[in-house]
Amino acid sequence: MTAPMLTLDQAKNLKPGDVLLTPDGKRWKVNGEIKRWKRDPNRIRIPLKHGLYAYGAITETDFDPHGNSLYFTGKEKP
What we know:
6 strands
């Protein structure tokens, strides 16, 4: 059984401070407000932080055509 992937709809509902998990167990924290576009509802940008120096972002290009994330398995349970 494969791990459930983060979907585009779930990504749109993330909040600053939420923690995402990668398949290899790394934790990435949502590091700011999620950017959403009114003209294109499928367009997003989610800033992330890992550790002290690693930063990145998830955009709509990080999801496959079915809306599943290519890199993150899901949100960490509180």
